[in-house]
Amino acid sequence: MARKAYPRTPDGRYFVAKNRLWRCTDPCLSEDEKRTHIKALMKARRAVRTA
After folding, report:
1. Residue 37 contacts by C-beta under 8 Å, 6 or more apart in sequence?
2. Of 3, 14, 22, 44, which sits with the fewest C-beta atoms within 10 Å of its C-beta?
3. pLDDT tens per residue across span 32-46
4. Is residue 42 within 8 Å of residue 50, measured between CB atoms?
């Protein structure tokens, strides 16, 4: 599935979806680092949900 191209702010730090600003991923991160951080974030969100 192809990703939809959302408009970005001029500084490139955020994208706009449904009239809201969302932070973009740091382009300096490698794919492995990005995946590691996403897994940690999702694990923490699941822990909050079950708490």
Report:
1. 29
2. 3
3. 999 999 999 999 999
4. no
